[in-house]
Amino acid sequence: MTSLYFDISQEQWPIVYDDKYNVSVFGLEKFHVFDAKKWRNIVQYLRNAQLITDERLVKPKEAQKSDLLVVHTKRYLKSLNWSARVAIIAEVPLVSLLPNFLVQYAYLKPMRLQTGGSVLCGKLALERGWAINVGGGFHHCSAQKGEGFCPYADITLLIRFLMMNNLIETAMIVDLDAHQGNGYEKDFLGVPEVYIMDMYNRNIFPKDKEAKKAIRRKVELGNLVEDMEYMLKLRLNLKAAFNEFKPDIVVYNAGTDILDTDPLGHMSISECGIIKRDEYVFEMCKGLRVPIVMLTSGGYLRRTARIIAESIINLHGKGLIYGSCKDSKW
């Protein structure tokens, strides 16, 4: 049993977060399109809404080398000791000029902590019916390669740890980030126990044809897709996915880069559309009594933190996520 798994109190909610999730590389993060303080802002909105307190949050443990080696090759992990390699993954060229020990501390350590949070969420979801990692969702990273801001394969690790510990036999990944989740797709290519539904903009990164072979339900969208078309395709395909496959857990990659005006997603989903999207996925899982892990993944506008928080508040208001363990019907 990994040290990343531990028990939480009845009063705690399976919402996983540590303030160390947030990235600060001597101000260089300002040169990146991603809001490196997104995760802190989500939690602050939840605090302001009085949905959570610090006592209710769960702090994860950082994924160690032994944990990462469950999926990653030694060669890949060794490559992260070169700042130039990390700069390519993070897409911040100036990072290549920094000593690697600073890159490890300021960028990779927060990412390892978020990865530990994703792994922990797998266990917590089985116990409570749901879990949310305020970070994670590094869906472009595979066992042998990181890219697209994703240095660790947290989705693959989440599922592999559950299977290794005989906690599940099957899993479904529902990826609704604007980008194709090519990382875990490479890892689960030819693995029938893992069903992948990926709904993404076909015109943007990564356009990974080889990884697409792993997708069991592929929903390719065009630029500027709006709420009505999006929700119709989501409802049709998610129902069909559950008719085709009975998972022990759903890993929901809930990227908000589908939002209108997002600089990388190139789609036109409204704030309300994102909230309704999340509500529908949780509603389906609750109705079928399938545990769900939500990862926040991509989203490149400052306002996405507020939208994610409002979505979580909505899930609670609709009774789709519960407070303490004694409130759960799971």
From TrEMBL:
<dbReference type="InterPro" id="IPR023696">
    <property type="entry name" value="Ureohydrolase_dom_sf"/>
</dbReference>
<keyword id="KW-0805">Transcription regulation</keyword>
<dbReference type="InterPro" id="IPR044150">
    <property type="entry name" value="HDAC_classIV"/>
</dbReference>
<dbReference type="InterPro" id="IPR000286">
    <property type="entry name" value="HDACs"/>
</dbReference>
<dbReference type="GO" id="GO:0141221">
    <property type="term" value="F:histone deacetylase activity, hydrolytic mechanism"/>
</dbReference>
<keyword id="KW-0804">Transcription</keyword>
<keyword id="KW-0378">Hydrolase</keyword>
<dbReference type="InterPro" id="IPR023801">
    <property type="entry name" value="His_deacetylse_dom"/>
</dbReference>
<keyword id="KW-0156">Chromatin regulator</keyword>
<dbReference type="InterPro" id="IPR037138">
    <property type="entry name" value="His_deacetylse_dom_sf"/>
</dbReference>
<dbReference type="GO" id="GO:0000118">
    <property type="term" value="C:histone deacetylase complex"/>
</dbReference>
<dbReference type="GO" id="GO:0040029">
    <property type="term" value="P:epigenetic regulation of gene expression"/>
</dbReference>
<feature type="domain" description="Histone deacetylase">
    <location>
        <begin position="32"/>
        <end position="311"/>
    </location>
</feature>
<keyword id="KW-0678">Repressor</keyword>
<comment type="similarity">
    <text>Belongs to the histone deacetylase family.</text>
</comment>
<dbReference type="Pfam" id="PF00850">
    <property type="entry name" value="Hist_deacetyl"/>
</dbReference>
<protein>
    <recommendedName>
        <fullName>Histone deacetylase 11</fullName>
        <ecNumber>3.5.1.98</ecNumber>
    </recommendedName>
</protein>
<keyword id="KW-0539">Nucleus</keyword>
<comment type="function">
    <text>Responsible for the deacetylation of lysine residues on the N-terminal part of the core histones (H2A, H2B, H3 and H4). Histone deacetylation gives a tag for epigenetic repression and plays an important role in transcriptional regulation, cell cycle progression and developmental events. Histone deacetylases act via the formation of large multiprotein complexes.</text>
</comment>
<comment type="subunit">
    <text>Interacts with HDAC6.</text>
</comment>
